[in-house]
Amino acid sequence: MSDLEARFEAASESVKQLSKQPSNDVLLQLYSLFKQGRHGDVTGSRPGFTNPVGRAKYDAWAKLKGVGRDDAMQRYIDLVDSLT
After folding, report:
1. Where in this chain does the record put each ACB domain (predicted)?
2. Would you say 30 and 19 are in contact if contact means Cβ atoms under 8 Å apart?
3. Domains by residue range for the chain, with CATH
4. Radius of gyration of the chain from its Cα atoms, rounded to whole angstroms
5. Which tens digit of pLDDT belongs to each residue from 39-63?
6. For residue 1, what pLDDT band results from cuts at 50, 70 and 90?
């Protein structure tokens, strides 16, 4: 495991213990950066209008299409650090 991956994993654990709940926009950023860093570009089909939460998550992740996994991991770490 690289240093970046170790810091990414540590950030993903520390975000669970934030003292204050982030806004929905920040939560979507965290979700999409985590998914991009862990899995790469979004896959699967976009959820339908009857699943607004799933659709918002999919759309947030889809906006990061083409962003490298290392870049997404670093941006995730930076965002978590700004919240702690």
Report:
1. 4-84
2. no
3. 3-83 (1.20.80.10)
4. 13
5. 999 999 999 999 999 999 999 999 9
6. confident
